[in-house]
Specification:
Elements: H1 4-13, E1 18-22, H2 28-35, E2 39-44, H3 48-57, E3 63-64, E4 80-83, H4 106-116, E5 120-125, H5 134-144, E6 146-153, E7 166-173, H6 201-206, H7 213-216, H8 225-234, H9 238-253
Parallel strand pairs: 1-2, 1-4, 2-3, 4-5
Antiparallel strand pairs: 5-7, 6-7
Helix pairs in contact: 2-9, 4-5
């Protein structure tokens, strides 16, 4: 949850945006947006292990399983839909089968957007998307009525000891005039402390929002070792997303 200072700032700018989370994983994007002052309204995640993590940290948030079985009209209206669809079809580390890969689930993401019609969209994926699949994503966003801007950001930008480069696409309803989102005075990544709120090595070992396998591995008694490492490997660094969330609100998200 956001701290007292964060909540005071939230009240001052009038935030309270509701977030619909797709391909939620263990909630890295969700946690980042929540820390920015947003409310997680619902989550869609098929993986059983990740569902347990989400249930622990967001016990009162409605969750849905396979996105292919979610119509979209049952989840409820939100201000922003956010998520990172599976990266394996476009990842530079994989076969790069693109849209012929059965794990290419961007069409499901776009289908939910057409039904829910949020004000904003946040999409995350590996940088491989830029050379394979980006055209399809931007074309669908444009067809739905969104303008979009994107940037490759690294966890190192918020002080992490590793790169974890990811492309983030911020889309907004056509005509909202958020052009130059990435070039403005926000996000101010260098002003953010990677280890804030972490007071001991045990915190680092147990917190799912610190996606560093070396800190969560070893013979430390943590169950579900393989599932945990896989979930952490797919996770998004919350500190990066928090700054994006704050930037969305500062650039017009509270209007």
């Amino acid at each position: 949850m956001a701290g007292k200072q964060d909540m005071a700032q939230c009240v001052a700018v009038g935030c309270g945006m509701r977030v619909g989370s797709l391909f939620s994983g263990i909630g890295g994007i969700d946690l980042g947006l929540q820390r920015a002052g947003m409310e997680i309204a619902w989550q869609i995640e098929i993986d059983p292990f990740c569902q347990k993590v989400l249930a622990k940290h967001w016990p009162d948030v409605p969750r849905y399983g396979d996105i292919k079985t979610v119509r979209g009209d049952e989840v409820g209206a939100v201000d922003i839909v956010a998520g990172g669809f599976p990266c394996q079809p476009v990842s530079l580390a994989g076969q790069r089968a693109g849209q012929s890969d059965e794990r290419w689930l961007w069409p499901e993401f776009a289908r939910i957007l057409r039904v829910v019609r949020p004000r904003y969209v946040l999409v995350e994926n590996t940088p491989g998307l830029l050379s394979l699949g980006m055209g399809s994503v931007l074309r669908d966003l444009a067809d739905i009525g969104f303008d979009a801007e994107w940037q490759v950001l690294s966890a190192k930008a918020v002080g992490a000891p590793h790169l974890r480069r990811r492309v983030f696409i911020v889309a907004y309803r056509r005509g909202q005039r958020m052009e130059g989102f990435w070039q403005g005075p926000v996000p101010r990544f260098n002003e953010f402390s990677w280890c804030q709120d972490v007071r001991s090595i045990e915190d680092l070992r147990c917190r799912p929002d610190i996606p560093q396998p070396l800190l969560c591995g070893g013979r430390n008694g943590i169950p579900h070792y393989v599932d945990r490492l896989r979930a952490l490997g797919n996770a998004v660094v919350p500190q990066v997303v928090e700054q994006i969330g704050r930037a969305i609100m500062a650039a017009g998200g509270t209007k």
